[in-house]
Design goal:
With about 300 residues, this protein is α/β, with parallel strands linked by helices. It has a single domain, classed as Rossmann fold. The chain is about 45% helix and about 10% strand. Strands 2-3-1-4-5-6 form a 6-stranded parallel sheet, with helices on both faces. The chain is globular, with a radius of gyration of 20 Å. The chain starts with 10 loop residues before the first strand and ends with a strand.
């Protein structure tokens, strides 16, 4: 049973993803670890409970988005308050505040940032706001985001070829996204880490996000919802009837992905040529260096 919340939030520690950077693993681990966090006077709001509240308040077409007013802020904070269990340091992880996976497939990354009014509202009333963003090399992220996107939406004309052509011309940069977040939320602290560090250093990264040593963390299996599809699965999902409602498309695509998972039997969806992969990895290193140069102390690295 939830206890009465008696103190205001002193700090929001808001993890923004991005999509396809082990966000589900982070969310599942902290949800399973919530009681241990509460014992350390830290609360994590599970995404299954928080997401409906957040989505009601960040739909780009909704009246709440258009007329973001003090009463709307009060209603949103009241709804989140009901999810709390007391501690004044609150963790919240929701990648959809940046946008959706299709927002990763163009330039700039996440052009809409639909969650900005909501994030600003969290930081009002005296609460501190610390943002956390995970980045990933585009040679791995973009194919993964595309495969995720076509589960729910039909591909754009030209399919992945159109995505590849844009990447080949001018890849987007994470530094641009970091700069836009800093400009839009000047009072918030921002920490960036690399997805590539997650596999070996996820416990240390969780401690940085939580704000204190909080292990031992539970060891969970990989989430089934984020397992990679094979080339055949992607091709069959691309070929689904474009007029299917989203719910029906999701059902059919998930069945296809379950039949033809990535692995030895069906191969892996790796649609980028080696030369482009090499250029994107080189561009990623330059991108990280630019983040370091423009925003000293923002980027965490474990490889040096």
């Amino acid at each position: 049973m939830r206890r009465m919340v008696s103190s205001p939030v002193r700090q929001w520690r808001l993890h923004l993803g991005a999509h396809k950077t082990a966000t589900t693993h982070l969310q599942d681990t902290l949800a399973a670890h919530r009681q241990a966090l509460l014992a350390r006077d830290i609360d994590y709001l599970p995404v299954a409970e928080a997401r409906p509240v957040l989505r009601r308040n960040m739909r780009p077409e909704g009246l709440r988005r258009k007329f973001w007013s003090p009463p709307v802020r009060m209603l949103m904070r009241r709804d989140l308050e009901r999810l709390r269990r007391g501690p004044a340091t609150v963790l919240l992880s929701e990648e959809d505040l940046l946008g959706y996976t299709f927002d990763q497939l163009g330039d700039p990354l996440y052009p809409r940032l639909p969650g900005l009014p909501l994030i600003r509202a969290l930081g009002q009333g005296g609460a501190g706001l610390h943002l956390f963003l995970a980045v990933r090399s585009l040679d791995a992220l973009i194919p993964s985001a595309y495969a995720q996107m076509i589960r729910a939406l039909p591909p754009e004309p030209g399919g992945f070829d159109a995505v590849r052509a844009r990447l080949d011309r001018q890849p987007p940069t994470w530094c641009d996204l970091v700069a836009r977040l800093r400009d839009a939320l000047p009072g918030a602290a921002l920490t960036v880490w690399r997805y590539e560090d997650w596999r070996s250093h996820w416990r240390a990264l969780l401690d940085r996000y939580v704000g204190a040593p909080a292990g031992p963390y539970p060891e969970l299996p990989p989430p089934a919802s984020t397992l990679s599809p094979s080339p055949r699965a992607v091709a069959e999902a691309e070929a689904l009837d474009r007029s299917l409602p989203m719910a029906a498309r999701l059902r059919e695509a998930e069945a296809i992905y379950a039949r033809y998972p990535a692995g030895e039997a069906h191969g892996r969806f790796a649609p980028l040529e080696p030369a482009l992969v090499a250029r994107l990895r080189e561009a990623y290193e330059a991108d990280l260096a630019e983040i370091d140069r423009r925003f000293p102390g923002c980027l965490l690295r474990f490889d040096r």
